[in-house]
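Exam prep: given the inputs below (a chain plus zinc ion), describe the expected output before reading on.
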Amino acid sequence: MTSQEHIYNIPKIDLHCHLDGSFSLDFIKSYSNINMKDEELIKKLQAPADCDSLTTYLTCFDLPISCLQTKEGITNGVLDLIKQAAEENVKYIEIRFAPSCSVNSTLNYSDIYEAAIEGCKLGYNTCNIFSNIILCAMRHHSLETNLKVLHSAMDYLGHGICALDLAGDESAFMNTEFIDLFKEAKRLGMPYTIHSGECGSVDNIKVALELGAKRVGHGIALCKDSTLMKECQKSRLGLELCPTSNFQTRAVTNINTYPLRLFLDNGLLATVNTDNRTVSNTNMTKELHLSLEKLQIKEEDLITIYKNSIEISFADDNIKNQLYKLI
Ligand SMILES: [Zn+2]
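Solution:
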């Protein structure tokens, strides 16, 4: 049996990790006005294991977002997350957050991007870990706001910002409502991943594929459609699975039917990620350990998952080559 210690020590990649769901308690205490005991704070930040839906899960983000309203908060928030990842030997991480939730009278989009990229640079200098930023457009925001996120990011593409995402309540806003946003991203050459198939909608995965997404966040519902599975395999669509989070949001309710094994057996580019380290009380070591213990994953699959992560990552070839060398 593979020990947690062994998994802790092997090189790992985390492609789906939300900044605002992954802060340490120390960071939250330093950058929010909150004054409460650790146990109470944990209750506020962590989704219960029997969380009833994605909608409830999303309420855990209000306090962390309040820490991302200054350049210093954003830089140190990114660094806080990178340090946690480096500590468990993650070698590359793509960190995502919604810049439109940080814009205020003293902070514009460029300030936000530069602050986040600075956090990545400090992370590389202090922990020797590669990272990039994915910007989340939000489902409940207007097209105008989401286009602003995209357009203001173009100067930073390839310089710390690597892609666009669509996050928020998938059950309330379908992917078809965002066709104009992703058409524009495609026109500009901004790659994108779209949270899809987390709330049971296989149609959202189909739409994401048609829109030219390189990856989808979660993609759990794909297991319901074998024809679409084949199309996704042919198109080399990346799947960013996040097991603990997927159980908490009820994307999967029966541990025996978690589709990671099925996806790998069908040649899909499935990966394992954390989603939200604090909200889900997890890290890459725990996710891979869970995969081995409960999700029918064997030790040799860990190499496949690592290689899949490199292939579907938004990293440049230099970083990809360095990550391959670590196998
Ligand atoms: Zn997510």
